[in-house]
Amino acid sequence: MLRVAAAHGRRRTVSTCWRRGAFSRHLSSHPSLAVGDPAHVPETVPATKLVDFEGRLLVLGLGSIGMGTLPLLLKHIGMSASQVIVFTGDDRADEAAQVEAAYPGLCTKLGWVTEDNYNETLEAATGGMAKGDFLLNLSVDVASCSLLEWCAERGVNYVDTVVEPWLGRYTDPNLTPAERTNYAMREEAIALKKRLGPSSATAVITHGANPGMVNHFVKRALLNIREKQTGTALVTPSTREGWAELAQTVGVRAIHISERDTQVQGVPKKVGEFVNTWSIDGFIGEGCQPAELGWGTHEKQLPPKGRRHEAGSRAAIYIERPGASTRVRTWTPSEGPFHGWLITHNESMSISDFLTLPAGSGYEATYRPTVHYAYHPCDDAVLSLHEFAGKNWELQPNKKLIVEEIVSGIDELGVLLMGTDAQGEHFAYWYGSQLEIEQARRLVEFNSATSLQVTAAAMAATVWAMRNPSCGILEPEELPHDEILDVMAPYIAPVIGEYTEWTPLDGREELFAEDVDREDPWQFKNIIVE
Fold this sequence. Notes:
Elements lengths: L2 E2 L5 E10 L2 E10 L19 E2 L4 E4 L3 H13 E2 L5 E5 L4 H10 L4 E4 L7 H9 L7 E4 L1 E2 L3 H11 L2 E4 L21 H15 L6 E2 L8 H18 L9 H11 L1 E10 L2 E2 L7 E4 L3 H8 L2 E5 L11 E3 L7 E7 L4 E6 L3 E6 L4 H9 L15 E7 L2 H12 L7 E4 L4 E3 L1 E11 L5 E11 H7 L5 H19 L5 E2 L6 H12 L2 E6 L23 H4 E2 L1
Parallel strand pairs: 4-6, 5-7, 5-9, 7-8, 9-11, 11-12, 12-26, 13-21, 15-22
Antiparallel strand pairs: 1-10, 2-3, 13-24, 14-23, 16-18, 17-18, 19-20, 19-28, 24-25, 25-27
Helix pairs in contact: 1-12, 4-5, 6-7, 6-13, 12-13
C-alpha cells in the first residue's frame, strides 16, 4: 500500500559516477546555489534553473515531504507543471487539490500502490513511462527494489529517500530480527545494483536528510578535521579507499548522526495521540525495527543482545531490541549533551561500509568507524514515544503530523565525528545544519525545518540524476559531495562546524558506579544508555 511519507551563480564542479571501486570523474560546468559562507542565512533564494528537463516526472507520495519538494522542483528545474504527475493515497485528496490549485497544469491521481498491483497501477497512472522520464519516490510502504527494477526496465531515472519494503515487513513477526533490519534491505539494493550494472538508468537511493545530506556532511567534516590537524588543505580524496584512509589517518573512531529537534506546537499533546514533525508511519516503522549500527574495528565487545550478520558487507551489527527503546549519549552545539534514540537508518550501514579498509573486508577489516543515528525528536514526539512503548508498541488511535502548527524551534541535524589523533589527543567535531522553522517557511512553502532538510536533499539528488542519467544505482557516498551541498546550501543554512571537549564519560560515576571504559572514551559501551 502506498502510504505518504511525511517525512540548497554558476561554478565549475565535478560530476562523479562510481566505477569498479573508484571514481570516474569528469569536469562539468553547472549552475549552483552556493552562497559562499555556509553559515550565511539568506533572506531569499533566486529561482536559478539548475537543469533542463523535457520528460515527465512522476512524484509518488504527497505527505509533508512530497508537498515540500514540489515547489523546489518547479523552482529549480527547467520544466512546466504540466510535466508533473503526483500519485498519492486516497487519504490525501485535500492535499492533492491544494497542489493542483497552487501549480496549474500539474496532475494528481489518487489510489494505492501494492505489491500485487504496482506495475499496472503505475502504467495506468502515467500512460506508460520511458527513457527520459523520472520517478521521484517519496512514499512509504512501497518497495524500493521493485520500483528500481520497474524503472531500469524502462530507462527511467529514479530518486528515493529510503530503501523501503512493502507494507508489513518492518513488524512482521514471521521474520527474524535480522531479516527486518535495514542492513538486509540495503543488501538487496546492492545486489540489484550489481545485477543492473553501472550504466543502467541513474537511480539515487536513500537521499533525503538522513540518509543523504548527512553522508555528504561526513566528507566535509573529515576535510575540516584534516585541515585543522595539518594546517593545510590537502587534495580531496577521489576514491572510496582514499576517504577511508583519511578517516583512519585523522583518527576517527565513531560517527553519530546527531539530531535534536526543538520544534514545538502551540497546544499540548493529547493523550492517545502520536505527534511528530515528519512521517509518523515512517518513524513508527523504523522505531520498531532492531537497533542497528555500523561496527567499528576499535570496539572491544558487542553490546548486550548484539548480533553479527552472516552475509553481505558485514560492516554492521544489530541489537535484538527496538531502536525506539535503545538510547545513546551524544552531543550537538545548541543542546550540548543529551540522550538520543538509536533508530536504525541506512546511513549507519553505508557510511561504515564506505569507510572500511580494506574495502569489503567485513568483520576482518583493519579499519572501520562505529556509525549510528542518535535522534532526539521534538518533545511531543518523545511523549508520544513513551506512551507508545508503554502500550507495548500498540500505536495510539490518533496521529498528528505538525507543520503549520509549529510555533518555534530548530532542527539541529549533523554529524559528530569522535576519535583520537596521532598525538593521543581525543577530539569531537560536529558539522551540520541548524535550520530554524521561520527560516524554512520564509524560503519554501509547505515546509518546516525538519522537512526542508529532506526536500532540499531530494531536489539536489533529482537535479544530479537528471544531469547524469546513466550511472546505475548509487548511494549518497558515490555522489560528489560538494556539488550536492552547493545545491542545498541556502536551504539548510546555517551550516556550522564546532569542536567540543565533550566525551560520553563526562559526569559519569559521580553518584553510582558504572561499567565504563576509561581507556577509550569512544567505546560503544560508554555511549549506549543501559
